[in-house]
Amino acid sequence: MTEHWLPEILRSPLAAFIGEECTVTLVDQLNIFEPKCLRFALSKGLGLGIVLGGCVVKLPQLFKILKSKSVAGISLSSYVLEVFANIITIAYNFRKGYDFTTYGEALFIGVQNYVITLLILLMTGRASLGTVTGAFLVVFTYAMFSDTLVNSALLSALYGLTIPLVVSSRIPQIYTIHKNKYTGQLSAFAVFNYFFGTAARLYTTLVQVDDSLVLIGVVLATVANGVLAAQMLYYWNAPAPKDKYRLDSKKNE
């Protein structure tokens, strides 16, 4: 039996995180370059980091909107599509029993996207529509987690639809930036964190999730987020349009 040199108070949570087998290999035996466990531990650690990053990734965007009292350059349709994709992604992964570190950021990002979507509606004079939208998203979320309302086959089909949905959620934002040659109130922190987060998620998906649908979705999300990141760099010092691009409801759709 391998001797445990690490105090149990530290070893127990580590074993719960990366598994007893890899804890024995990497910690007890100090075989830190064992390929299988090293890949798994790196994936778990990276996944946890992505989830934690998801807790704050949209907060700068949210604060920027509240501070400026403007939703300039932010596409409403992008956020609506993304919220639906977040909900379906969370439900699919949860009901499949995948490790929370492989999809958990979708939960926190989804909540932040939900708030930003309601703010966009509020700031463009559509508070009543915001109320209806908020209520509908709550009902939709409940349905996605209900085996009775949405069975596994239907959920898998819906998740398959999120693959083009994730890409299409970026297209209005990409088009808005391209058309106006200006990033407006779009947060650089959020854009770059999205890109690096999805790029890192590629690795964790390959190591921990044996699901081609999930992998295809992550690949396409990385490409779409990469385009947004490139636009952010290209238009970094672009001047605001003469009207300051304070969006009205038509421009924001």
From TrEMBL:
Principal subcellular localisation of the protein: membrane
The UniProt record lists the keyword Transport: yes
Compartments it resides in: Membrane
Coiled coil (UniProt feature): none
UniProt topology in membrane: Multi-pass membrane protein
Similarity annotation: Belongs to the MPDU1 (TC 2.A.43.3) family.
Record SMART domains: CTNS
Species annotation: Coemansia pectinata
GO cellular component: membrane
Pfam families: PQ-loop
TM region(s), chain numbering: 40-59, 71-94, 100-122, 152-171, 183-203, 215-236
The name this protein goes by in its record: Mannose-P-dolichol utilization defect 1 protein homolog
Organism ancestry: Eukaryota, Fungi, Fungi incertae sedis, Zoopagomycota, Kickxellomycotina
UniProt keyword list: Membrane, Repeat, Transmembrane, Transmembrane helix, Transport
The keyword Cell wall biogenesis/degradation belongs to this UniProt entry's keyword annotation: no
